[in-house]
Amino acid sequence: KDLNFASFLLLVQAMKGKGAVFDKSQLSCMIYRITSNRTPSAIDTLPVDALLYFNSKDFRTSQNCKAFFQGVGKSNINILPKGSARRRNLLNDARICLGI
To answer: pTM, whole model, 2 decimals?
Structure first.
C-alpha cells in the first residue's frame, strides 16, 4: 500500500523465478494494483501465475498475445476453479490469438 507503483512493479518482477507461491487473493490483488495504473507491456517479467488474473481480452489481439498465452500455459491453471468463466475466457481468447 505504501509502495509507489514503480517500486511495487519492481517487487513483483523480482519475485519471478524465485519460487514464490501466491494464493488467488494475492494474485488478484497484485494484478488489480498493476492494471489500475495501466496494462504492462512487459508481461514476461511477471510471475506466470499472475497472468491468470489479467483480462485475457486485453491480449487476444495484441502484439503480446502469443507471449501472454505462452505464459498462461506455463502457469498453474489449477489455481482457477474448473469450469470457471475465467478459465473459459482464457481458452476462447487463446483460440482467437492463435487463429484456431
So the answer is: 0.85
